[in-house]
Design goal:
This protein is an all-alpha fold. 67% of the residues lie in helices and 0% in strands. The protein is built from 8 helices and no strands. The radius of gyration is 18 Å and the shape is globular.
Length: 156
């Protein structure tokens, strides 16, 4: 099977898949489910799962996990947060699953990765990261409340 033979979603469906992928990219730190992402894409979860995997080469939850690990790498490089704090900040609910997924994607443990970047530029204090996250969450919740109150839905 060549690259051109790889099954992909029809063009009119790509918009829906992108909407769900963008939602996952924005909300990676929140608990996300296949049902929620399929709902954002306006598809049944099994149809969404098949089309997402065919289009992007990974399942929606693998995509979310990859996005979380990418964000964890950023935090481990630039902040003074512990590995455990980073694990929970990016949306993992278990240090064990975070550690095994980090090693599988990055090729080394999170603590080794962090140690590699320990010397160099000063780190951002973790309290700033958490305060910024809370402010972003409050702003997002306020925007959702305004949209629900006015009866409109977000189309971005």
């Amino acid at each position: 099977m060549t690259l051109t033979d790889t099954p992909r979603a029809p063009g009119d469906v790509l918009v829906h898949l992108r909407r769900a992928r963008d939602h996952a990219d924005r909300c990676y730190a929140q608990p996300l489910t296949l049902d929620e992402l399929a709902s954002v894409a306006c598809m049944s979860k099994y149809h969404f799962l098949r089309l997402f995997k065919a289009t992007y080469g990974m399942t929606p939850m693998e995509h979310v996990s990859q996005r979380r690990i990418e964000r964890a790498q950023d935090l481990l490089r630039a902040t003074n947060l512990t590995v455990t704090e980073v694990c929970f900040a990016v949306g993992f609910s278990s240090l064990g699953s975070f550690s095994s997924r980090f090693r599988a994607l990055v090729g080394q443990s999170a603590s080794d990765f962090q140690r590699r970047y320990a010397e160099g530029a000063p780190h951002i204090p973790g309290c700033f990261i958490f305060m910024w996250g809370l402010a972003e969450r409050e702003r997002s919740e306020a925007n959702i409340a305004i949209a629900e109150k006015s009866g409109s839905t977000s189309s971005s």
